[in-house]
Every structure is written in structure tokens, then in C-alpha cells.
Amino acid sequence: MIEDAQILIARLLAHQTLRREDKLVKRALSDELFRTEIDTRLKACGMKFVDNVYADYVTLALTRDSESKVFGTKETWQNNNFGLARDGVALLVVLWSLIILPKRERQEAHQLAEEDQNDMFGKDKPMPRAEDTSIGISYRALLADFGEKLGKKTRMDMNLGQLARVGFIERKADLILEGPLLDLLMDTDTLKDRIINGALSDIFHIPAPRTPAVIAPVVETPAEVETATEINVASVETPVANNDASANTGADFTPNTEKE
Asked: Helix (H) and strand (E) counts for the chain?
């Protein structure tokens, strides 16, 4: 068992990823003692074994305790982003949300990529593999929808090439497909909530939705109704008066849309 654990770790270090169907990988996923031996060896080196039921591959990654000591040694904090620039990280998050989230929904519904409806009797079957449920996205559609926000064609092509080289995506003609690492190294528990709740508004400068204030009703005397009505209307009215005041004093009112 010790020799097999050593071989599996060495192969993952050499090849970066291995398929779940691999003999030693299957053993690591099913044999508790074997997995404990692997985890113990990796922890001693500041690493961990990474897998999830939605991905077809497994890999190795640094533990949280090791990240600061490894990536924090330079002036720029890399945080395990493979040296990607800000627009490259944004592109990675966009691709993850467009490819992985729909794929996981199809897996949980036991729906294959070529099917257009759920299998009513599929809940008792094993979860479909990622390659059977993952659908690529069109490069042209991605460029049309996000090109202006992510550096236009030249920058997007450069970042897509880098993401493909490190294993996050694969390119086939016009299609951008899920790579071995896309569903492994992204923090799904954190990202999913942030994506659904509109975290990309910070990158694309999309204003966050505002919840209107609710004013509790107050019992008023007839003499106070007219005055109170004027005050309430003024409190929710569009502040055109502020702009007029700025114009009268010669001051320009320009909304600050730049990120600090």
C-alpha cells in the first residue's frame, strides 16, 4: 500500500491530473486506509488530494496553510491564479459560471448533454460523467457578450490560450470546452453564491440591485396629514433638485463609476 501511495502521488505530480477511472485513483476514492495514507503523505508536504463527484479527474493542490508561504514570497500575491492578470481571472470565472454550473445541474438531474429533458427514473442511476453532461460554449458568442469587458479580442485570445495551457479549458474549433481543472480548482461553495448573487457586477461595473425602503404606517391626526405627505414624497423623489443646485453653484455632478 505504501508503494502504491507513493506511485499515485508521483504520477499526479508528473501529469497534474488523472482520470477517476485510473486503477489507483479508484482505489484512493474507495479504500479508506489507502486514502488516509495518501492524505498523510501529502499533508506533510503542504499539499492535498483534490476530487469531487462532478469532475472526471483528480489532482493535487496546496493546503490553505501553505498558500501564503508559497505564493506570498513575491511582492505580488499570486493566490494560485497561475499568474493570470485581472481580466484573465475574470474570464476564468465567466467560463466557470457558463460551463460548470449548467453541467452540475444536468448531472444532478441525470440529464445527458444531448437530452432536452430530465430522466424521471434516473435518480437511482449513477451520476453521469462530466464528459457526458458538459456542453461547450461558442467562442464567437463569448467574444460578443464579454469581449468589450474583458480586453477585446486580442486580450481574450491571449487569456484563453493561457487557460488552455494550464488545463482549465480545451479548444475545439469554435467551441470552448471544460478542461480537467475547471471543476477541481475553483472554490464552488464560495463562487456559486457570489455568482448567483451578482458578484460579477464588481468586475463588469453592473450596479447592484437596491431594495426599496419600507416605511411603516403611522397614525396621524387630520391636521398633520398634509405636512407629513409632503415630507414623505420629498424623501423618495428623484433628487433632481440636487443637480439643479450643483448647476447653480457651477459644480459638476459626475457619478463615480471607477473602482477604488
From this structure: 12, 6
d(CA 238, CA 153): 40
Q: Are 100 and 183 in contact (CB under 8 A)?
A: yes
3-state helix, strand, coil in the chain (%, to 5): 50, 10, 40
CB 168 within 8 A of CB 161: no
Q: Distance between CA 32 and CA 38 in Å, rounded?
A: 10
CA 253 to chain CA centroid, Å, is 36
- Of 5, 59, 72, 12, whose CA–CA distance to 35 is shortest? 5
Residue 199 one-letter amino acid: A
b/e map of 232-242 (b: 16 or more CB within 10 Å)?
eeeeeeeeeee
pLDDT value at residue 13: 95
Q: Is 198 left (phi over 0), alpha (psi -120 to 50) or beta?
A: left
Q: Mean pLDDT per 10-residue run, the chain (260 residues)?
A: 89 95 95 95 95 92 84 61 79 90 84 58 66 85 91 92 93 92 81 62 49 48 43 32 38 40
Closest CA to 137 of 92, 90, 177: 177
